[in-house]
Amino acid sequence: MVINRLPDGLSGITVIGAAILPEEMEIDNPGLMDGVRRCGVQVVYEGSGTNLQQNLHSVSYLDNASGKSDEITLCLNDRDGDWMGGTAFEKERDLDVTAYMWNWGASKSIEKYHCGNFTVDDITYQGGNNRITVKGVSTPAASSFQTDPVSKTWKQITLKQIAEEMMSKYGMINLYFWGDDPIIESAEQDSQTDSAFLYDICKKQGKALKIYKKGFVIFDEALYESRGITARFTKGDFIGGDYEWNTTLNGTYTGGVISYKPPKQKEAITVTIGEGPRFLHIRETVESEGEAIRTIRERVNAENKKAVTIRFKIIANKDLVASCNIEIYGLGRIDGKYYVDSVLNSIGPGGYTMDVTAHLILQRL
Questions:
Q1: Max alpha carbon distance in the chain (Å)?
Q2: What backbone phi and psi angles, to 5 degrees, belong to 210?
Q3: Cis status, amide bond into 277, omega within 30 of 0
Q4: 145-186, pLDDT tens digit by residue?
Q5: d(Cα 274, Cα 257) in Å, to the nearest integer?
């Protein structure tokens, strides 16, 4: 079993180069409870383990709060050319990845970070260094959900009902829905894939969406931002003390304007929310005043996420996931409550680290 030491500044952590924990090193093996920080990765392919512990070079997992699918990348050494026949991994197959951390939060402790369930969608062989890169996405990539254009008019239906109909269509089983669910008078799906349409209609209704292999998570981001703090960070927690903080006025707004035309009415009605001086003028088709209000708020609040942002890298924290809230403290004007937009997990010769992107939680429109 190869053990990789971390560079200076991250000493005290070791990485077990295991794509799946071998039988002689069970997760609760007492030999790992020696106070030394260690991490390992368990990969389950098509429902069973694969003996790749000497081949795994690194794992990268991108966890997005909404709007994009989660992604996993496995990088494996193939020095002996054992897999050049393509028998180890195949596209459209199931991949499940979990990271384990020993003695991380406390001595003699075991912590688990489930990256998720993915569909293999990309395999690359590099002959020069005999390396294989396997990529997976958290969506059902093999289905027509993301490929086939659909034209359909949805009338007198709620967002939850649209999601449930699509789940039934694609054999999904899980739906987590958090937020109000008003009736949508009419929505036109014009030669859009079901995946693209669901993202669009959620956005228009002011909801965030995460698509998984077996279901959807649809939630009101404002409700998530109102939750408590998952973790607190200051400069000393950032690797190398490094971080990037930005505040910008460009592309942010204090209000929004949209017009709609009710049925059987000649004149359009203009809806305005907020006050000047920076109005976002929205050109989208809406069917009612309520939909107009939701659209303005969603668009303005989405644009204003970039008003204040922060990026930093830390040693892995099992409690830190996209869509959680964190606090930055001890940094003056940078201090505040932030919403985590994405977490890039990196496990390899450099240890187990997380690159975090977040935005300051501001008063919503």
A1: 78
A2: -120, 130
A3: yes
A4: 888 999 999 999 999 999 999 999 988 889 999 989 988 888
A5: 9
